[in-house]
User: Fold this.
Amino acid sequence: MSGFDSNPFAEPESDNPFNDPSVTQATSSTIEPTDQYNFPEQPAGLATHTTPATPSPYQPAVLQPSTEPSPKAAAAAAQANLLRQQEELERKAAELDRREQELKGRGPGGKQNNWPPLPSFFPVKPCFYQDFSEEIPVEYQRVCKMMYYLWMFNCVTLFLNLLACLAFFTTDSSYGVDFGLSILWLILFAPCSFLCWYRPIYKAFRTDSSFSFFFFFFVFFCQVMIFIIQAVGIPKWGNSGWIAAFTMIATNKPVGAIMIVVAILFTICAVLSIVLLKMVHSMYRRTGASFQKAQQEFSQGVITNKSFQSAASSAAQGAFQGNN
Assistant:
């Protein structure tokens, strides 16, 4: 009846692996302490090697709180961006203006003006471009340079004439008109001679322009007459020429000597101008220039002139409106 007394719902003892006698003996045996075993001791000089614990390569993820910019911060950033763009545009506009001014200050062919040779800090910039070796043909360079030296010599003579007339005025106050006119001649003739006869002959040699040759001949002939009048030295005309010098040397020899030197310089100017006029005329005859070419160049220059075109169009419009 023992079979009836057992629990029918319990697992059979044969099916339970832990009821195995070998397992039961192993689990019931006590583990002896490690003190019963004698481990060999390490030498005194050797250091114990410990393997460090390897840190885990995986770190916990930290989520940063996402904060959206406020409307004020966004508006400030947009305004700063606009200001930066505006500064960039202003800088580019200034650079364009500077380049435009440089282009306006360039001579023919897009070259930088170099005359008069003024320092960079001077408020007035050079107005002309001049280079004999580059722009003037070799056969004309010598004569063109001589014309340039004649103009410089004339300017120096006019300045010395002013000093001589000043000395003349200090000796005799009745000759104050000569001193005043000498200042006028220096201010008037120095730039006008450069523009009216030197630049035309420079352009004539550079471009072989018949009109420039004719303009030079007309103006330079008048300049030769002025040199002769200045060398003569008519009193009250502002020139310390021969007549004024001989008049003064009788009363004041030092002042008279200064005026004679200036009269000699005026005479040299007159002689050189006549010689150079003949040289230029001979070169002009070899270039094949003529009065017909000069007329043609003048008419083409007038037709292509923008001022003339605007004036002609205005006149045509006025005539058309008047007829209507």
Remarks:
- The chain is about 65% helix and 0% strand.
- Residues 71-104 form the longest helix (34 residues).
